[in-house]
Amino acid sequence: MRFTLPLFAVTFYAFSESLNEESFFYLIRSDILNNLQEILSFHYVYPLPLNKFQILMKSIECTHNIIETSPTELAKILSISTNHARTILTNYKQVLKINLLDVYNAANIKAIPFNSEYYPENLYDLVDPPTILYAKGDISLLVNPRKVAIIGSRKATNYSSTALEYIVPPLVEKNIVIVSGLAKGADSLAHHAAIKYGGKTIAVLGHGFSHIYPRENRELACQIGGNHLLLTEYPPYVGVQKWHFPMRNRIISGISNALVVTEASLKSGTLITTDHALEHGRDIFVVPGPILKEQSKGTNSLLREGAIPIWDGYQILEELKLF
Q1: Antiparallel, parallel or unpaired: β 132-137 and 229-232
Q2: Do 275 and 155 fall within a single domain?
Q3: Do 84 and 153 belong together in one domain?
C-alpha cells in the first residue's frame, strides 16, 4: 500500500497589500524553519515513522500545536500511556529550545525530512516511511535514480568476494550506486568493492551516528561518511537494538531498484530484506552456490522461489535494461 503524503508541511500565508514581497517570503522562510525545528525536536524525543506522524498531525492540525497538546490527548492519539506522553512533551519542550539544525550541521549531519527534495520518493511506498532521514556525506546520491542493493550473510566467505569482483565493476561503469547495510560479511564486502572499483556507495545504519556498529567497520564508516553516504532514520543518540536491523532492511530495499544476494543461510536475516524487496516489486538477483554449503542454502532456496540467477553485473544491467 502506497503511503499518502500529508498536506500539512507548511503554514501558508495569504498575500495582502499590507505585506510587501520581501516580508512575505521572510514569513514563509521563517515558518518553514520553525516547522522543521518542531519536526526535528519531536523526532529527537520520539522518532515515530511518518504514518504515525501523519495521524498526529491530522489530530492537532500542525506542528505548532504540539506544545499545546495535553499528555492525555497525546496519549490517546499515539496509543501510549499518559505517563509516556507526559515525558515526551516535557522532553520536547526542552529540546525545542536547542537549535538542532545548528547542532547537526556542526556534526556534519544533514537532516532530511519527508518533504525534502532529497527524500527518496520510493520510500513513500512503505507502510511506515521514515519521518526524517539523517545523512552524513554526499546526499546527492539519494536522488541518483540508479541504485542496486548488495547484501548477504554476516558469515560471507571468499565466495562472495570473488562474486563481487564480477558483479560490481559493470554496475559502477553505469554509475549505479551500491547500497548495503555496513554489517559484517557481505555488506562490508559490497561497500569495499564499490569503493575499490571507483563507484559510490550508501550504507544504511540501524542506529544513530553516535554508535557505529560493528566496531571493526568504524574506519569504513568514516570513509563512506566522507566520500559517499551514511544514512539512518534514527537520531544520533539512538543506540544499537536488535529490532532496528529489520527496520533498516526496509530502507535498503526501499531506496534500491533491485537487490543482489551473494550468500545466505536458510535462517539468515538477509531473507527479511528480500521479503521487503518482493513486497515492493523489486527484482531479486541471486548468486547460485554449492549445494552442500551452508551459506548457499538460503540463496539456492531463493532461486527455487523464482529469484534471478546471476554471476556477473552485465546480467543485472540487461535485466534492468540499463545498457
Answers
A1: antiparallel
A2: yes
A3: no
